[in-house]
Design goal:
- The complex is a heterodimer of chains A (156) and B (597).
- Chain A has 156 residues and is α+β, with helices and mostly antiparallel strands.
- Chain A has seven helices and four strands; from the N terminus they run ααααβααβββα.
- In chain A, strands 2-1-3-4 form a four-stranded mixed β-sheet, with helices on one face.
- The radius of gyration of chain A is 18 Å and the shape is elongated.
- In chain B, the strands form six sheets. Chain B has a five-stranded mixed β-sheet. In chain B, strands 2-1-3-4 form a four-stranded mixed β-sheet, with helices on one face. In chain B, strands 9-8-7-10 form a four-stranded parallel β-sheet, with helices on both faces.
- The longest helix of chain B has 18 residues.
- The termini of chain B are far apart.
- Classes of the chains: A alpha+beta (156), B alpha/beta (597).
- Chains A and B meet through α2, α4, α5, α6 and β4 of A and α1, β11, β15 and α17 of B.
Chain lengths: 156, 597
Amino acid sequence: MSPKKPETEERTKQIVAPWKGTHGGTIPVLQEVQKEFGYLPEDALMVISREMKIPPSELFGVATFYAQFHLNPRGRHIVRVCRGTACHVRGSLAILDKIKKVLQIEENGTTEDLRYTLEPVACLGACGLAPVMMVDEETHGRLTPDKVMEILGSYE
Amino acid sequence: MAFYRAHVLVCKGTGCNASGSSSVFDALGEEIRKRGLDQEVALVETGCHGMCEMGPIVVIYPEGSLYCRVSVDDVPEIVEEHLYKGRLVHRLLYTTPDRKVKVPRYRDIPFYSKQHRIALRNCGYINPDNIEEYIARDGYAALAKALTSMKPEEVLSEVKTSGLRGRGGGGFPTGLKWEFCRKAQGDKKYVICNADEGDPGAFMDRSILEGDPHAIIEGMTLGAYAMGADEGYIYCRAEYPLAIKRLVGAITHAEEFGLIGDNVMDTDFSFHLHIKEGAGAFVCGEETALLASIEGERGMPRPRPPFPANKGLWGKPSNINNVETWANVPNIIRNGGSWYASIGTEKSKGTKVFALTGKVNNTGLVEVPMGTTIRDIVFDMGGGILKDRKFKAVQIGGPSGGCLTEEHLDLPVDYESLTAAGAIMGSGGLVVMDEDTCMVDVAKFFLEFTQRESCGKCVPCREGTKQMLLILEKITSGKGRMEDLKILEDLAIMVKEMSLCGLGQTAPNPVLTTLRYFRDEYETHIRDKKCPAKACSALISYLIDPEKCKKCGLCARNCPVKCISGDRNTPYEIDQEKCIKCGTCLEVCPFQAVFKE
């Protein structure tokens, strides 16, 4: 599934180029690389390390510290179920369990057909509509376990 | 400029958007054109109105009528009745939950009439993508006033006079913080906006970022002028894509208008502003961790001193304030520090935005003067508890805050009174809980969060929160012992006193306050192996009432472990040994025959 090594390296080099020699570029570069490939391929990380002169250990430290970065391929659609307080009080656990049961995946897991990745998040900041989930960049609120599956079905 | 006899404002904040306001907006545009009203009626897209529960919200001026939960199907009627014939569409007006009264005017709705909007003054009122609308609302007037008639010291002194304190949680006097940075030695200084709003249950920063981005830009520019900085960063979490989009647009417009950039308003003062996207770590809300993250490191806090005012971003003097704090600044400079100080209580000045959520009728954002009571917020503005249930507690201040009970309902909310009660102002999340909420489960919920978000640098926080969580898991699964409560309390105090940063120092608050006010619930879990709120799944069982059971078999067909037996003649029964307590049977039963005990 993962892209070929030379292509990955080439594309990564292009992304890194404007950030070379500047300070504070690590996270924006990782964000852009992840946007490009959907995750952070090892080949890309090695290129970033060489080009930006950051030891791989340090880069790996940054990449694993933040919840946003992923070292494995992810699904076409990212399903973020809010586990914030307001959602918890209004039943987000039942929403999460329903998705897990139907898609047969665990938290942070990806379906075999690479259609969905399930990621519980701390809070989506749409507490007024609790319980809430985000599919890719769209927010869906006032969920019920039944409504959830209907919504997910609309993402191919 | 075109003259419009009516303005139709459609909320396009994240909340209303998720409820479908985009299609309502398009449908309104279409219908207004179809009826040939587009020369006399202006359609405006705005930021958040705050009453997310009632979204999508449509407000029509000059009358100021607010329509709730507007769907595409309602659009022809609104255009026909309101815009064409000048009559209200009564069925879409806000109805008070208690008296069943229709409220025709936006300002008379209790949710709004008790508010005092300063930080939120433009949210829901202007189009955030249009800088001219911000300017028409006196935007950038404060900056012009400061740059043309005030010395930097005078700007600083107005902020000191105002008594403004950090709205992100700490409550540190803003003027003092600015003074430290102003006095720090250094040729290069930074101002930073902390928009890494991570507290579950708080979304006021998001609404300001999305609804009034220029207020933050103007506030930061004023701060930079006062402190002698020429560069700024807004550190915004990546989970807020709309906020980032609006900020990018606002910064571009402000640059085009010469309101930031080189030689602001043709003066010698220059200020450049950048956006940094966060990468998903709650601890980055802590200021030293935030700095590390901007620098491209792991977002881990470091001991203070040195404070960021002396050694901040890339070792240079820096000042970090939260979104809501910055949004207050232009108002203070425009109206004067003593004006701001005339609002609020003795030690807590001005207003505070609260995110009212949980089991309350009107969820949303409210901005009230400091010193307003919790009762006013929850019952008057919030419209009371959902489904008329009994109020049990309100959790204030997010994972760093605490749970307060009925006896605190008349507590005037300010920094001091909340701290005395064991909670904190925090970012201002107010999560209302009713009798179905288990307080031990709530404490566990918050600890799961802080334990997961602990960066792992210092031992008390990393190990302490873990051990505390293990004890809470034991208690909620019915394996707790009475002596665990003492250990839990000791650990909580240790973590609170010994942790390096604010995350660890406040993480035990939910546990400590629930132990203080709801100790009997903990004891019932341990002694009787029962969860009084029937929320802890290990301590409850699902049963079927043979009287109510109509023997339809729906529960048995839906049970994932097939533990329900029965048929047309025998009432259905749940095998308690096999039951996994998923609750599906209760959910599907059309006759409410399934119940929890």
